[in-house]
Amino acid sequence: MYRYDVHDRALVAGRVDEFRGQVRRRLQGELNEDQFRPLRLMNGVYLQLHSYMLRVAIPYGVLASHQLRLLATIAHRYDRGLGHFTTRQNLQFNWIGLEDVPDVLGHLARVDMHAIQTSGNCIRNITTDPFAGVAKDEVEDPRITAELLRQWSTFHPEFLYLPRKFKVAVTGAREDRAAVRWHDIGLRLVRDAAGTIGYEVIAGGGQGRTPVIGATLRSFLPKADLLPYIEAIMRLYNRFGRRDNKYKARIKILLQDVGIEAFARMVEEEWPRVRRPDPHLIAAETARLVEDFALPYRPRKDSPVDTTERDLAFWRWVAANVAPHQSADRAIVTLPLKSIDQGPGDITAEKMETVADLADRYSHAEMRISHHQNIVLPHVRWTELPRLWETLERLGLAEPIAGLAPDIVACPGMDYCALATARSIGIAQDISKRLAALAPPEHIGALRLNISGCINACGHHHAGHIGILGVDKRGEEFYQITIGGSDDYDATLGTLIGPAVPAARVADAIESLVLAYLAHRQGTERFLETYRRLGITPFKEAFHAVDQE
Amino acid sequence: MSSPMLSQILTASRLTDGRVVYFTETGQWSEQILEALFVAGPEAETTLLAQGRQGVAFRQVVDPYLIEVVRAGKDDPLPVRLRERIRAFGPTVYPPPRALIAKDARHVPV
Question: What is the pLDDT of residue B107?
Answer without folding.
Answer: 52
